Amino acid sequence: MAGKSAGRSTTAASAGTTTATDDATWSDAEITELKETLRAEIDRLERDLVAAQVDLVDLVQDTQDIVGDDQADVGSKAIEREHEAAMAANTRDVLAQYHHALERVEADLQGVCESCGGTIPKPRVQAFPRATLCVACKSAQKR
């Protein structure tokens, strides 16, 4: 990623280590890149959601026209409709996470854990822009 080493001290860079301030300090280029990544994903997800909603409407209309369908066809259509509904719901959830992440970046909170207030390592946010928890809090949440 562009600007990955920005904010690194000369001694830390020559030693090959990253200091805590490196994880908390974001260059303007890194912030711009993060915002662009988030906005691109938001755009993609919004397009996916519109397509999923159109597919779901088509499936619902197709399900209403069951005259002549056998039980297997009716069941298959119901499963397909439920699958599409679940996929649309998942897309809405992920889209909300991306919107929240963009709001956090615009408030300069992209590297701050929402749970403990600690630092979320910059490489974690760059790899997973929706990250809102540090590794320790995310691990504790999974338990």
If you had to describe this structure to a student in words, what would you say it looks like?
The protein is an all-alpha fold. It folds into two domains: 25-110; 111-143, no CATH class. 69% of the residues lie in helices and 0% in strands. It has six helices and no strands. It has helices at residues 10-15, 20-24, 28-64, 71-106, 122-127, 135-142. Helix 3 (28-64) packs antiparallel against helix 4. The longest helix is centred in the first third of the chain and has 37 residues, at 28-64. The protein is elongated, with a radius of gyration of 22 Å.
Give the secondary structure arrangement, pairings included.
Blueprint: H1 10-15, H2 20-24, H3 28-64, H4 71-106, H5 122-127, H6 135-142
Specify Rg, calculated over alpha carbons. 22 Å
Mean pLDDT: 82
- Name the structural class: mainly alpha
How many beta-strand segments? 0
Secondary-structure element pattern, one letter each = HHHHHH
Count of the domains: 2
Largest sheet: none
Q: Spans with pLDDT under 50 lasting ≥5 residues?
A: 1-21
Total count of helical runs of at least 4 residues: 6
Query: N- to C-terminal separation?
Result: 32 Å
Query: Can you give the helix content as a percent range?
Result: 55-70%
Percentage of residues in strands:
under 5%
Backbone shape: elongated
Main attributes of the structure:
69% helix, mainly alpha, elongated, 143 residues, 2 domains
